Task: structure prediction
Amino acid sequence: MTPVGRGTTSQAPARPHTTDRDTLIADQTSITNQESDAAVDNSKLTSLLHGLPGVDQVGLEGRAATLATRSIKKDSKIWAIDTAISMVDLTTLEGMDTDGKVRSLCAKALHPDPTDPTCPAVAAVCVYGDLVATTRACVADRIHVAAVATAFPSGRASMEVKLMDTKQAVADGADEIDMVIDRGAFLAGNYAKVFEEIVAVKEACGDAHLKVILETGELKTYDNVRRASWLAMHAGADFIKTSTGKVSPAATLPVTLLMLEAVRDFADQTGTRIGVKAAGGIKTSKDAIRYLVMVNETVGEGWLNPDMFRFGASSLLNDLLMQRQRMRDGHYSGPDYVTID
Amino acid sequence: MSRVDVRKTHKLFIGGAFPRSESGRTYEVTDSKEQFLANMALASRKDARDAVLAARSAVAKWSAATAYNRGQVLYRIAEVMEGRREQFISEVSDSEGVSSRKAGAHVDAAIDRWVWYAGWADKYAQVIGNTNPVAGPFFNFSVPEPTGVVAAVAPQDASILGLVSVVAPIIVTGNAVIVMPSSSRPIPAITLAECLATSDVPAGVVNILTGAPAEVMPWLAEHADVNALDLTGIVDEGVATDLQRSAAGTVKRVRGAAPHANWQATPSLSRMRAFVEVKTVWHPMGV
Amino acid sequence: MPFDYAPAPESRSIVDIESNYGLFIGGSFTEPTSGEFFKTINPATEEVLSEVAEAGQADVDAAVAAARRAYDKTWSKMSGKDRAKYIFRIARLIQERSRELAVLETLDNGKPIRESRDVDLPLVAAHFFYHAGWADKLEFAGYGPDPKSLGVAAQVIPWNFPLLMLAWKVAPALACGNTVVLKPAETTPLTALAFADICQQAGLPPGVVNIITGAGETGRMLVEHPDVDKVAFTGSTEVGKAIQRAVAGTKKKLTLELGGKAANIVFDDAPIDQAIEGIVNGIYFNQGHVCCAGSRLLLQESIADEALASLKRRLTTLRLGDPLDKNTDIGAINSSMQLSKIEELTAAGEAEGAERWSPTCPIPDKGFWFPPTLFTNVTQAHRIAREEIFGPVLSVLTFRTPEEAVAKANNTPFGLSAGIWTEKGSRTLWMANQMRAGIVWANTFNRFDPASPFGGFKESGFGREGGVQGLGAYLNVEDPS
Result:
């Protein structure tokens, strides 16, 4: 399986730096202390993050709302639906998950529409770490297996536990890890701790690619989301992800727009391309298409593929399938014509 | 043989729904000739408690709605009431013992009163609020904000016009209200509740408890989650004084009794002023 | 491009356009006495939409007489409460017929359907709704205990927001008890004529609103009519000055809303992504046909290069094309005459040495189009920094300090609007205080509301529309002596 995210742009290198903070960004190691490469200097990191441009809530939400008025029809709608399906991380994250549930989900992931073999498979199946082995056995190498890790969803556990969580999932066959950041540390201003955890988890991932969940619903302000995005990208995230889906609000159009702007600017400055995953609360095809429009008009076609953009969702898939059937058959579909997973 | 009609069961209006009183009690309402009209729900303190919960949960969204939106909702109430004009006229005529023509004038005035207050929604802040030219490099402005949850008593006479005159200014300013209509003439209040339920008024913004103010109001006057009282319809001065005393326990804003005001006259701003808090903000102006 | 948006046209079938329209006088449509008609076209396709009447002197006389009769016999005698109800009815009818009116506006004006649907029409309804509520509350507006109306108002409006400009004129006039004769712009008469139909549906007493179509001559005859008490004009500064000269020495009250050359000022601490949106919205919204457009971008020099790069990148996602397509961002230029003016000034810009840039933009064969354009290396001395282009053309200048931004922003005979982008609240308020402009937008741009007064300083005009202040234009507020 080819690892995803963290591609290098083939375009021109980053623009010339004109401010102190750009120097900090360009040279990541200057964030660390002189004495020890491992320890991160919190005050330097703070200056960097607090020096990022602010976000006007009203303006951001207004832009997202205008983008949401795009009317996607006919061929472009068919393309968008198929693309969205191929970007789904089909997810089950419940206390009552069993091997049986996971097998059912995997079958659905590989063949979402049993009546139509032209329907694309999803990008990944996303499960708790202790179900990874079952998942991998079901899907073999055909799609990605993503595991949530690091004491998902709260992130409240020791570093040892979080790293063990990660390593076991990778050992069992996960090729993608969705970790959560320590929101408590972030809100307390201990950015260095958040940074170091991401670095450590990334190392524990080995070849697996790392999605870093910001849990935007707990970060509350858009300024915080921007800062957390930059922190995660500098620390080595392959993807930044909005939410665990366990806290409301989860993914929203404005917050995802903001994260897309962050990856765009990061790519401009460093040449490194990071992916974005919008998770939780995305239920309808209409929603999903709106996200694709936002990707298209913010970061461009380079991100319109499952290697750079994902939907973390469960019920969304069936709505996409029903819309796909509608486009194919010319009439509205119904729940009896898509499978439960 | 004339048609046998289907008679209405009159219930309370709480949180957008029509429950019976949790006490199961009712009381008889008669017309001006002592003929039986209906059994009304007799609200209890627990109904009042539930109404406060409904009002409180409605206030956040209602006060955050744009003024334009609130204005349109109030105008919609007028539209729906207009559609039921004949029903209101017949109920007012029966309840108050007046001619259809007189009842018609009352009902028309009540509908027009909604229109009047609807037009205030996006204006009262311009008249009650302002900027203040303080002596210093500061931008200083005062804005009226809703006080929150108001418990009100509507006039005993003027069954619909008095009720609307009390409720409209409270909700146009972003508050939620628990109102006790006239206990002797409560039927038009229930028809009004039906209008509210079908006019895009969010659940809990208006709650109507039929019954005896003397029994229920003391609980509301003491309730720590009620911000203000409107004692307009209290006739007994002793009762009014007691309620004012109870209100002091949580420093509620109180609008006093005015049971026999001239409801036909164009209102002043005082009923809107009574239920807003003025917030003043300072901000430096400097490069 | 994998994600090309397929055409998504709004259906035209919702609107019925007559082949010709008469003049709306005294509550009904009548033929013009001259028998003259002129065509109105769709600027995106150049197809003829309809023929409308050319009102001559006799028609103007009849319209003013109808307005006077309605004022004397009906409207001035009517209670504010009743006037309010008619205006509320109009507001609700506009809401009901919003989609139809939006499509009609787009066909006649060339603006994208998304704008007419999401911006113009909701504001039109809101203006009538807001002003309806003032009709019976004038004693609370700060103009005395019983403010009186003026009488007959002559109103001449431009082509850039046809129905919205009509709402800005008619709503307060009616609310304050006046009757009106309104002349829409000659290139955009159709929504005004549809409004006449709405007045009929609302049961508005005949003669309270009269709509006469025609060009500059008709407008001149209307404002110069001796039996008009009030003149309200929105349009070019040149015509505004002519009107001001024409009413000199008469008792007519006058308000003018003229051109602008607004500065949109971006500081180094601006919320940059939202500032870019605000810049785009400020000059490319409505194809730049906006009197309060942010047509001069003042970038703080320390962030100028970055901001410009972001702006150019953003402009590449603007979609120019069929105004009826729901995904169109930039519609047609309203007329060939306006297009010539824009072309002349942009040519002047290049000749003066400013550097011109546009994103690659496929232009349709028929119709009048101009791609979003920006000029860098512009200074205050350039024509493109001083004259109103009224098109999708942005002039970019730089500044070093707040004081310099203020000086450059105010260095113009215009004074309609200004934009300020900074995260620092005290600077926002300090800058706002310094701006010689009637509207200051901070961290936003081109926001309108009937409750918010709109109007200019200096040669951008005088008088305000909207809010409590806007009522003053239509009330008799002079001292009795």
Remarks:
- The mean pLDDT of chain C is 97.
